[in-house]
Amino acid sequence: MTAPKGVTRRRFVQASVALAGMAAASKLHSAQEPAGEGLFDVHLHLSQAWYGADHGPIDARQLLAWMDAHDVAHAAVLPLVSPEAFWYPVTTEFVLSETRAHRDRLFPFCAVDPRTLATHLPQRKDVVDLLKRYQDAGAVGFGEHKPNLPIDDPLNMRLYEACSDVGLPLLFHLDNLANVDEPGLPGLARALAAFPDLTFIGHGKGWWASISGGLTKADLHVGYPRGAVISGGAVDQLMDRYPNIYGDLSSSGAHALTRAPAFGRDFIRRRADRLLFGTDYYDLTQQAFPQFSLFDELEVDPDVRRKIGGANARRLLG
Ligand SMILES: [Zn+2]
Asked: Any idea where the Amidohydrolase-related domain is (predicted)?
């Protein structure tokens, strides 16, 4: 390094030392910052004009303003293409184009309804090629996957195979209408075992109800179950057996962790490497987001906040 003209050697050295000190201090600071590079919301949606003017549309600028208001640095933006998923399709192409100017903060996912594989994408290569095109256009994950099929339906399994081939983590919604399974989630276990290299991210009523054991089929469709968590829940059992299953704390996720606070406090620490912060914001009228008070409510330490708040998502999504 040479001193710029007009600056004495001594002053330059002094200034350089001060700058180096500041850089070191800021590095140290960021390593200790609870949320690292800030909160990463793994579950946001854009919307178009829909059933009432109060509810949408939510375009990229509004999404960014909402994120600013809630101190969210980065977010995954999820399409919704299956007829069971939303009031109308929010297509991958729409999400890719809306986020294009904001890829420093908004990270698009892609989605394909698996029934398309029965008609228009008959070969493994057809599905892989489509996913690769989405990846090339910026997609960093697959989902929100929400078709009315068994979670281990052959069409779903072909889709998981292609996601595994191209390396796109898959975020799924599970209840009695989407990615249907039985109590104990044996279908999900078959999918996890069949595709060990594919990261699955669990979301939805049925997935989070399964934090508790002793469930009936009807329990997989209760939005926010209350009360004690019975031991033997499928979420813990699957996380023990399969390193490729994660949990998305959006929507019913935060409720599952606060229904029995002693269990929640223990669970969030035990599973600190496998949980992802998210809200599932999709409607302008949504007000309550218990995810933002979850860390305080469960008295989570800075390292766990940093992992769940963003580090895990950044690691998974590259
Ligand atoms: Zn969602």
From this structure: 41-318
